[in-house]
Amino acid sequence: MSTDLAEKTPAGASVGSYLKSHLRDYGMLLALIAIMAFFQVITDGTLLKPVNITNLFLQNSYIIIMALGMLLVIVAGHIDLSVGSVVGFVGALAAVMMVEWHWSVYATIPACLLVGIAIGAAQGYWVAFWRIPSFIVTLAGMLVFRGASLWLLEGQSVGPFPREFQALSTGFIPDLLPFVKSIFGVERMNGLAVFAGAAIAALLVWLGMRTRTRNQAYGIEGEPFSFFVMRNVLVSGAIIFVSYKLSTFRGLPNVLITMGILTVIYAFLTESTVLGRRIYALGGNQKAAKLSGIKTERLIFLTFINMGMLAALAGLIFAARLNTATPKAGVSFELDVIAAVFIGGASMSGGVGKIVGAVVGAFIMGVMNNGMSIMGIGIDYQQMIKGLVLLAAVIFDVYNKNKSA
Amino acid sequence: MSTLLKMQNITKTFPGVKALDSVNLEVNAGEIHAVVGENGAGKSTLMKVLSGVYPHGEYEGEILFEGSEARFSGIADSEKQGIIIIHQELALVPLLSIAENLFLGNEVSSRGVINWPETFRKTETLLRKVGLREAPTTLVDKLGVGKQQLVEIAKALAKEVKLLILDEPTAALSESDSQALLDLLLELKSQGITSILISHKLNEVERVADRITVIRDGTTVSTLQAARAEINEERIIRDMVGRDMAHRYPERVRNIGDVLFEVKDWNVYHPDHAERQVIRKANFHVRKGEIVGIAGLMGAGRTELAMSLFGRSYGQNISGEARLHGKPIDTSTVSSAIASGLAYVTEDRKALGLVLDETIQKNISLANLEGISRAGVLNEAHEQTVAEGYRKAMNIRTPGVYQKVVNLSGGNQQKVVLSKWLFTEPQVLILDEPTRGIDVGAKFEIYGIMNQLADEGRGVLMISSEMPELLGMCDRIYVMNEGALVGELAAKDASQERIMSFIVRS
């Protein structure tokens, strides 16, 4: 994850000019830090309290998970408006399966993911092979699956769910390393969380250094060394800080692990695999990609299948978090997800965007939601401010692009 | 006869390319003035300067129109002065009626409300003037290209035109439509309208032009006058081509082997109109180390032939056989065609050949990602080595392979496309207009690369609309017309006249 930001520039660039020329890559990360600092101060430190950090992850996990899939869809040059409705539908389906049909949790989860895949395939089929605009197909899907969840639940809320299912969202990884807290001599501290945080930070630094030396061996110019150090100190510091904070509450939330693993997988997929590269090429110039031997239709189909699966997973997590399925679940989630991807630097016309950007974008939205709620700002103002932030982020992006062109 | 327009020492540079170098053009009132030159000579750029597409300040030199200096800030500005340009790509709105198109942006209205009866009345007058018998309410969509061209001219007349510029107006027209259009030009001339005609077709120019300005490599070469009997094809061609043929194309020792690539009875039907046959029973072959050309007019079906061969990227109901080394190969999808050893360099590199917003490195590897990956995981360091290698071998002029291709000049972009295809290790390369929109120096380099490919024992099939280029580069030339290969010439027997005579006679 750390290597994504390591863009290449000519040798000898100073930190200042390097940052200037890569403002697009780092801008949103800096914005996130600034927003967090702002709310940390204005909420008298509530934002970064262990319980609130835990909440931040729980509240935003499903948006982030869907943003991973939406990034691929948007990079491929399409859009999926149906994800909010799919969240509602899959949550409703899971509720009916478990509560009314008495299916086991372990049958329900895979079945629901398969339904998500099928939904993605059903929409992707028309987009990919019939060239129906994705806006229309998924707008139709949005209506259909919203209706379908109403129909499934007969307008009622269904719940509660078995404990194992709730654990999907509100569960925590048990402290497997209880001895750690005795080392530090802290009473309430989850050893595993601290250890995991430190380990991940170390791993990131190690991976970053390995890529850096390998690039240098091939003569690829990377970022200035001082910049490399600064970035790694910041990122690993943030990870250790967050994991320490989490450890003093209830440890690592299950959903954080799910989200983290998925983020790593998708970052790797988009940046380091043939499949990922082809999706970017497809979004950048579909005709050229096709004439280069890339099976563009199949690729579009796959991105929608993937989106369906992730939307289903998000639906399960959301239902588990509320411990009930309601017909209104997931309403307007698609807008938050799409906004996150665009705030993260993806381009409406396809071919541009990064997984880390989408995650950062989702956190910007999440932190603002959370911070403004703590401050007691009404939903009316919240919506307006979020809308303006989305607009500002995209204007910033376009401005930077024009400047560099 | 008074001078209507005088363009003096016009110089226009693009990053890396000097498109115009002190060009002079003088047009008299009431004449038809032709501007001729090879592709890329700078004709269209000159017209864009004249019509304000490149506003005052973006070029050097001055424009005198009706005796006073004109500094156009945009198309609207030059149109107000009565200079109206009709582009190669027609600028009509297909789903609006003829009348709506004629007065688009210039509506007959009072206080924003359109006066339809007056609009229709004026439309009918204008249509009569250009000899188009259609109702004013007919949608432009329903008209053929020839009639659309007439609508464009009527639209120009609606704006009180003083100087009408036609950019390759007959390029897409049939013979009879072209004749009708030229007659209309003469008719307009008799009504006192001055026009500039940009054309490749020298017989047309000869027929209607009073004077001809020849442009070559961004400079004015000569202005010929009909009145002094200076206008004849030979003279025009000599001025257009200029340099000695021998020095325009790099030397090559021919080493031609066995038949490498062979296509038999290739038939293709139009993708939308299943009954229309686009390629008729094409038979041809390319030998090892041979550069084979396909000549023909625009719309002859050359690109369609190439694309249908390359993974059925064009057409439907394709039948016929493609063989490599005598064995049938699978060309049913692009990836199988690539795997079989074919490569196709498209004529439209921006729209079909490159991912413009991506780096040179990522464009070069695009058609052979397997070559830089293991088990689906990319090795970017290896990718960089590969791209760097091609950058040096092809002499792609850029600081590094992390540059986006959108910032490169046409010649360098074309080298990136060629690199992409060479990385797939093709045995046969189909090059479709490989030097279109490239300046002279880069053309020479591309020719050098083509010769090298042939020397390495590959087969090269070259499609080009520039006959001198085909004559200078090819060992053998097929002539294509209306979807069929109508002639074949060995290099030593080929000439522009013989190629044209095949086209005319078929």
Descriptive account of the structure:
The complex is a heterodimer of chains A (405) and B (506). With 405 residues, chain A is an all-alpha fold. Chain A has a domain at 49-171 and 253-404: ABC transporter involved in vitamin B12 uptake, BtuC (Orthogonal Bundle). Chain A has helices at residues 15-21, 23-42, 50-75, 83-100, 105-129, 134-153, 163-170, 179-184, 191-217, 225-247, 254-272, 274-284, 286-291, 296-322, 333-343, 355-375, 379-404. Chain A is globular. Chain A starts with 14 loop residues before the first helix and ends with a helix. Chain B is an alpha/beta fold and 506 residues long. Chain B folds into three domains: 3-246, Rossmann fold (3-Layer(aba) Sandwich); 255-341 and 426-505, Rossmann fold (3-Layer(aba) Sandwich), CATH 3.40.50.300; 357-425, no CATH class. Chain B is built from 18 helices and 24 strands. In chain B, strands 6-9-10-3-11-12 form a six-stranded mixed sheet, sandwiched between helices. In chain B, strands 18-21-22-15-23-24 form a six-stranded mixed sheet, sandwiched between helices. In chain B, helix 4 (116-130) crosses helix 5 (145-158). Chain B starts with a strand and ends with a helix. The A-B interface holds A 8, 10, 214-215, 217-218, 220, 272-275, 277-278, 280-281, 284-285, 287-295, 351-352 and B 310-311, 313, 333-335, 337-338, 344, 346, 351-358, 362, 365-367, 369-370, 373, 376-378, 380-381, 384-385, 399-400, 402, 420.
